[in-house]
Design a protein that fits this description.
Blueprint: E1 2-5, E2 8-16, E3 22-28, H1 33-40, E4 45-46, E5 50-54, H2 60-79, H3 86-93, H4 97-104, E6 107-109, E7 113-115, E8 118-125, E9 128-135, E10 138-145
Antiparallel strand pairs: 1-2, 2-3, 3-5, 4-5, 6-7, 8-9, 9-10
Amino acid sequence: MIIKCQHIKVTVSISHLLHKKTIFLFTTDDKRVLPLIKDLIPSAFMGKSCARIKYSHEYAIEELMDVCKEIVDDHNRKRSSVITDMTGLKKWSSIPSKTQQVLLNNVFCSTCGVTTMVNYSVQNDRLGLALKGKCCGGNVARFIENE
């Protein structure tokens, strides 16, 4: 089984060794993965770019999946450009949720016209709030003036 996410490549295979002992062989180029495995599965044998885990380890599969999920989540967090400041977030949360939805669903995009903003950030401004996000056509923004 090979798991890929952008720059992350992880290979997990099941090997039969001598005396019919089964192990998982976990191979990766990502330097963050092996220390996570060692923390979660102290009995794992660590190599330069791989870890060998006894199949008999009760939670081996679940822990390997946890490692993969943590690496993918970390990678996605680093890729995300959404940054929100706390003052802007407080102003935004003071707006009723129905009004928030109206504002987010009524954004103009030069490619697709009136659209919905997703993956947006909220920034405080002395004159109001700046929402910056995405739509299917690219980047969009909306300014909401103070009352």
